[in-house]
Amino acid sequence: MVSRQAGKRPLWLTLLGLACLVGFGISAYLALVVSPPDVNQGELIRIMYAHVSVAWICFAAITISAVFAMLYLWRGRPQDDVRALANAEAALVFSFLTVTGGMIYSKPTLNTWWTWDAKLTLTALMVALIVGYFLVRALIDDPQRRGRVSAVVMIVVLVSLPFNYLAAEWFRTLHPAKSVNLDGSGVTMDPTMLTILLINVAIAGLIYLFFVSERIRIGRIAVARRQARESVPVSTEVVRVG
Amino acid sequence: MWANLTANQWVAFAWLQLVVVYVGYLLYLGWRARKTEEEQG
Q: Total structural domains in chain A?
């Protein structure tokens, strides 16, 4: 049996939720009030803080989900599948926000919602693959086979990430070049804007952590219940059916 | 319609969709937790 205590949300998770609420207020205040307008984009630069932060967290969620997917393939522990699933759900939320936020950013600055260039097509493919992850899970009943097949799908999503990240440099695209480069070539952004962006990323990361922790908590209860059900002796089942 | 939006309205739109999606996922998590606890009995 799964105890009632196991289903209760721990205090630290409730406090994390409250920290997310406060943090989101701070990040919105910094982006919408404190940040100076951009010399080219004017007030529209305030959309960048919402768009870039969720995009970075989306990439992180996919990577972490794929790591747990690999661990599940290696060790076969249900907890790893639960963690991969929780991160995949967060990846879906943040990838959706990345796309919709990007479209809202693109319309007033580039005068189009969408174009099928390499960067955006790879992003659409990434979202489609994440949706595919959940379709696979919905279509397979056996928990172990479901975990294995969906793990492979998430690893495919991870493989697509470097191409997505570098597409803005490799191909002609409407997507602006990166202002913060991870290859050590530097940062081409106003220091105040960079600080506010990094705070927004940190708060989005905190929200991601809350989402994933809460989803793992729920997933663990479901796994424990399934294991308890599977451990019921066959004879008991026969008596109950009869 | 979209051509008439000011820069500030675009900014508000972008941040609003962020809030809506966050709250939407929170509501989903709440529903999921309730459903799991009900099945637990």
A: 1
